[in-house]
Amino acid sequence: MDDVADHVVRGVRYVGVRFSVRLATETEGRPAHAEISLDNVGRLLTSAIEQTQVGVGGTVRVSQGLAGAGAWDWSLQMDVLSAHVDAARVTLRLGYDPQMDKPAVRLRFDPQTATGLF
Asked: Would the pTM count as exceeding 0.85?
């Protein structure tokens, strides 16, 4: 449920805004990603996204807790893969940078790249 009331957790004030979440989807050959969309509540939010080159490369932390408990039950941090900002909404596509799918070095010595050595 998107609670629009402000909350204080461990002395930090969190401002409540309307939001919607689309859970992670996975398709063949593409990494799973989720999407969060929230009301564009003002220049403070959009300027933060613009300063980070439309949010890409940043992270988003999603936390859940009971109202009045003063602590988070759980928290999840995801990378911002893309962002779309208009006058009404801010939509972020979230996932994980697929670092494990990338080669560790630019050039390997194997039969394809160094045929004379093998």
From this structure: no
